[in-house]
Amino acid sequence: MTTISERLMPVQSSVTKRSWRWMRDNLFSTPLNTLISLVCIYIIWNVVGGLISWAIVNASFIPGKDACAEITGACWGYVHANWRFLMFGTFPPAEYWRPFVAIMMLTGGMLLTMNRTFWTKWLPVVWIIGFIAVYYILAGGVFGLTPVRTGLWGGLTLTLVLAVVGIAFAAPLALILALGRRSEMPLVKVICVVFIEVFRGVPLISVLFMASVMFPLFLPTGVSVDVLLRAQVGIIVFQAAYLAEVFRGGMQAIPSGQYEAADSLGLTYWQKMGKIILPQALRLVIPPTMSTFISLFKDTSLVVIIGLFDLLAATRAAVNNPEWRPHYIEGYVFIALIYFCFCFFMSRYSLYLDRSLKKATSH
Amino acid sequence: MTEQNRLADRESVIQVTNMNKWYGDFHVLRDINLDVKQGERIVICGPSGSGKSTMIRCLNRLEEHQEGNIIVNGIELGDNVKNIEEVRKDVCMVFQHFNLFPHLTVLENLTLAPMFVLKQPKKEAEATAMKYLERVKIAEQALKYPGQLSGGQQQRVAIARSLCMNPKIMLFDEPTSALDPEMIKEVLDVMVELASEGMTMLCVTHEMGFAKKVADRVIFMDAGQIIEQNEPNEFFNNPQNDRTKLFLSQILGH
Lengths: 363, 254
Prior knowledge:
Largest interface: A-B, 22 and 26 residues
Strand content of chain A: under 5%
Order of helices and strands of chain B: HEEEHEEHEHHHEHEHEEHH
Strand order of the largest sheet of chain B: 6-7-8-3-9-10
Mean pLDDT of chain B: 90
Distance between the termini of chain A: 32 Å
Structural class of chain A: mainly alpha
Number of strands of chain A: 1
CATH superfamily of chain A: MetI-like
CATH class of chain A: Mainly Alpha
Radius of gyration of chain B: 18 Å
CATH architecture of chain A: Orthogonal Bundle
Oligomer: heterodimer
Low-confidence stretches of chain B: none
Largest sheet of chain A: none
Structural class of chain B: alpha/beta
Strand content of chain B: 15-25%
Helix content of chain A: over 70%
Shape of chain B: globular
Shape of chain A: globular
């Protein structure tokens, strides 16, 4: 046994030897493979090398614009000078701690919610209280906080508010729509089908545009609904329409035997759905659900067209500042990283959730 | 004939009169008349597509009938949802493919309906569940998930799940057809035991040994009709109808 295993896995310089062998077998096995490999290596070398020399080697990490006068790489002093604006947008600088607390509460709430031990009936209650708290922390007007109108909320704060509130309300609405679409009551079914098809059939931009431009025309004069609220509702109904179809797909994938078993045991419709069908159906559609959440997160950047000032809009405003105009790339790279971090985290979480739920019920 | 006497003075628990059912234009059940006494054990057989599964699925309204009456335990089955829920409390069904809930443990599978439909406290439901799991000889698997059990074990869990509802009538829809041969016996043993305890049973099956052993009456169906019914001895030894004879020769022939 020892001789065989020694021959199979030589202890001495095994890593180098194995990687040479791997390269010979996979990259340079034939002349054509060798050629393709060399071309790819050349391209990667150029792109990655260029990126590294721009972002790190030739870059300046010293705060202040003057430090960037001579360098050819990135000027990360941009981030230092502008990060507050990117985080909090046009919120009054003296009150920056308030959006900071809001960001902490929203991300903290998301992190807690990801832990399955908190999945109880109290979770929605905690979230609703949390949302009310976040609203008053940002809007002020209570406990001596200076009122700040919603038009001034901005940057990452606004993006997070739109995304988290969007997810929290779109998901239950989608569930109701999905159940309604599969309902045997004709009126309920028609309403849900029309709702889903209308909002799925138009771009989010036009939903937001309608919410901001057309919706006020239908209101009696003197009555106005906050533009942020309108945008938020627009995002919720739009994403709920998509998500409803994802959920419906999950429900359709549950074998009819599960419905029959639940029926034959005398469970009511809501017991059957709540205890048998939805737990299985929602588990099936974790990946596409998370996809929808991720696109919801990124689509919040479209609110810029109705004059709201989210993370992307704040970046654009910051690069319009003549002082920093030459360094707009750094700004966009920085917020791309922020978007990526959130989205990548959601994507990894979906994988983890999918796996841990599967592991719980199989061999 | 003693069997007939045993049931003679019992009351009827299921009365089906002139039941008809269509799938679109297809007439699946034709003029079904059936009277089931309390404690009666009925085996229903027939070629595939003869409507035997459809018929017993009408008895707890998993399928709706279009004509005729079905009265179960004195409750008329129709569009009335309350009636349907009442009937389903008393009538349980065991399926060909078990239809256990894969996301719940064996124990949770058994306690769900008693807790939500019969409003039993959790403790009581779990005690009942363990009692029936022991009866089907599978108590040690209570905390596993259905996917971790063999087919025969799953079907025994499914039977225990039904028993937890304390049903008056049990419907079996080909309970052994999806099982490997070596697992059929363990399920049939449980069913024989149930029968010996006086459960009212309607069982769609091709297990003729089971029919001979426990049935009070064997019903033969073909093309949506009840062709022939008799007590098992007569049914197997002296079938009247040509189609019954052909069917029996096919399934008993080898």
